[in-house]
Design goal:
about 625 residues; Neuraminidase; 2 domains; 39 strands; about 35% strand; Jelly Rolls; nine-stranded antiparallel β-sheet; elongated; about 5% helix
């Protein structure tokens, strides 16, 4: 059963609540931490609401805000921008400088002017001397059309072709070299069959160059074909490497190598699209990369020879041989920090089920931004279950192309919404929770309102429920259960506080899942756990720990079963959903019925007056299983 059939089977009253991109209302979080700012200056917020970040640049179009910390201690951010929309004439590259960790920023400094040919997708890199290089796509020949192409259906992206150019700054980004230099990009089979038959290269890059041993390396995308309208139909991920840029003062003497070796770049296992590749280093200096596809999953790879060769193409997994990481056609970003831990930015939906949806749009669904924490074991990166890092109240608004900054023990993220780029401090406890998730066995007590066990949760018992704050005034609610089913027949009720339709109900559905229903007297919302046989789905004959998290910041409901976040499995593209705007007071009867109809046993009911992070739900699961 696909998502549409599921919605139809649940009835029109709850249909809207099954749309993860449904209408959303702005929700304030119960607490917003911030960084101390100079007197009179705005603070850098750790709120997950994207609008609370500090603005770097605002324009008709601005994209890919990437930061280096220069030798004078300032932050230098480079961005692709323009007065029009993405790809329009006048698109160029600029720099902004902050002397107070992103709280305020200088006016834009042109690296390339808006009056010249398109200059786009700028990436910064600082060498030991303090010189900052920037690398970007430059439409040097001012190309406007594909030769011998008269089809009105083909729209050429002129911001993703030309030469790979670079400039440099020796004064921390305040001024830039007048001379522009060109990188010799090696042609490969994808170039010789492109729209220009290799005479002009088509490409773009995302992310930042990194230092790999004594060399510099950055990823970019080669385009084999542009389609309609201006879409990239065939793409491959490649790398540019320089062995001497860090020590060579003469730009003309810098050595360049296009990798991997051979005629082919990084490709997807199935589809023709493999793009926006970016990499980080492992503890032994090996490379680890991520890139997007149109297959419903992101891909990853390892290189142990500096990028010359890579492991066979495969979809990224949370652990070696484990569950695939769902992701749409949006840039996934991976980074290793000084503590040896990793962070992955992605959007946590997709998969095979998404490809079957008639309305599947590869570029959509970039809100919220999720992260997974990574730890390295035996030369591989193991990823945590996901956490929401940033969200926008408008589900149609995207958040993408982030950069991660580490400065004086604090972690920050930049991002763009295409017309505004911002910076945010990341709540350190969120990162620590994700990084320690694999070993966390701690029971969370913060916000705990009710714990009932044993006879208190026997079939047909009654519990006195705490009164919940309005969702718009709190961070949410979490309900935890420990249950063993004899069967998964529908209409088994584990908990209900419904009175006159208002309140909460948790019951089994007709498709062997656990269904949460919320009703405030005006609106009804329903969402269920993952169907099928995945590890995060319901089982018969074994105890399962189930956390149902109502997160009122992004207005997301999610299930974490036996420590695994429900991601939709093979049946649906989303395992989480947004509840509708306006649904606020979920209080029903003050006395709730526990398991009035249950084919099995319930041994724990725990309720929090806030949303738990995924990492906290995982820790509670481990604490329960060892008790």
């Amino acid at each position: 059963m696909n998502r549409r059939e599921l919605i139809a089977s649940m009835g029109a009253a709850t249909a809207a609540s099954f749309l993860p991109g449904g209408q959303l209302l702005r929700a304030q979080e119960s607490a917003t931490a911030s960084v101390a700012a100079p007197s009179g200056a705005k603070e850098v917020s750790t709120s997950r609401d994207v609008k609370n970040g500090s603005v770097i640049i605002r324009n008709g179009y601005c994209d890919q805000p990437y930061v280096v910390i220069t030798k004078d201690g300032n932050w230098l951010c480079v961005t692709t921008t323009g007065r029009g929309t993405e790809g329009e004439k006048g698109q160029h590259i600029v720099a902004n400088i902050s002397s107070n960790q992103g709280i305020t920023w200088s006016p834009p400094i042109d690296i390339e002017p808006a009056t010249g040919p398109e200059a786009s997708w700028v990436m910064p890199y600082m060498i030991p001397s303090g010189r900052v290089y920037v690398f970007y796509t430059y439409n040097a020949e001012d190309i406007r059309q594909i030769p011998n192409c008269n089809s009105p259906l083909v729209s050429l992206r002129v911001d993703s072709l030309g030469e790979y150019a670079f400039k440099y700054s020796d004064d921390h980004g305040r001024t830039w070299s007048k001379e522009r230099f060109s990188i010799p990009v090696r042609t490969m089979s994808i170039d010789r069959t492109n729209n220009f038959r290799g005479k002009t290269l088509q490409f773009w890059g995302v992310g930042k160059p990194l230092t790999q041993k004594d060399a510099m390396i950055f990823g970019f995308t080669k385009v084999g074909e542009q389609g309609t309208p201006g879409g990239f139909v065939v793409t491959q991920g490649v790398f540019m490497r320089s062995e001497n840029i860090r020590a060579e003062p003469d730009p003309q003497r810098i050595l360049w190598a296009t990798l991997p070796d051979g005629e082919e770049g990084q490709r997807a296992p199935k589809g023709p699209v493999a793009e926006e590749i970016n990499a980080t280093t492992l503890s032994d200096g090996s490379l680890y990369c991520m890139y997007r596809t149109i297959d419903g999953y992101t891909c990853h790879g390892y290189s142990h020879d500096g990028g010359h060769t890579w492991t066979p193409r495969e979809y990224a997994t949370y652990s070696p041989g484990g569950r695939r990481i769902k992701h749409p056609r949006a840039a996934p970003f991976v980074r290793r920090f000084s503590n040896g831990k990793y962070l992955l930015w992605y959007h946590n939906h997709g998969g095979e089920a998404a490809l079957a949806e008639e309305d599947w749009q590869y570029y959509k669904g970039r809100n919220p931004g999720w992260v997974a924490g990574g730890i390295e074991k035996n030369g591989h990166v193991y990823w945590s279950e996901p956490e929401v890092l940033l969200y926008d109240d408008d589900p149609e608004a995207g958040i993408s192309y982030p950069d991660f900054i580490e400065d004086n023990g604090r972690f920050y993220i930049t991002e763009t919404q295409k017309s505004v780029a911002r910076v945010h401090q990341i709540d350190h406890s969120l990162l620590e929770g994700a990084w320690n998730q694999a070993t966390n066995q701690q029971l969370t007590t913060k916000g705990l309102l009710l714990t009932a066990r044993g006879i208190q949760v026997a079939k047909g018992s009654i519990v006195s429920l705490p009164r919940f704050e309005l969702l718009s005034k709190s961070s949410g609610v979490t309900v935890e259960l420990s249950v063993k089913f004899r069967d998964l027949n529908s209409d088994q009720i584990l908990l209900t506080s419904q009175e006159g339709g208002r309140g909460i109900e948790i019951a089994t559905s007709h498709r062997s899942t656990l269904l949460l229903t919320l009703n405030d007297g005006n609106k009804t919302f329903s969402w269920d756990s993952d169907p099928g046989t995945a590890p995060g789905s319901l089982k018969v004959g074994e105890w399962q720990h189930i956390a149902i998290i109502i997160d009122s910041g992004p207005r997301i409901v999610s299930f974490v079963i036996n420590g695994q976040f429900n991601d939709g499995g093979e049946v649906r593209d989303y395992g989480w959903a947004r509840y509708p705007s306006g649904l606020d007071d979920i209080n029903g009867a003050s006395l709730a019925r526990v398991a009035p109809v249950l084919h099995g046993e319930l041994r724990l009911l725990r309720i929090y007056g806030r949303h738990l992070r995924t990492s906290e739900a995982v820790g509670n699961y481990r604490a329960e299983t060892r008790s």
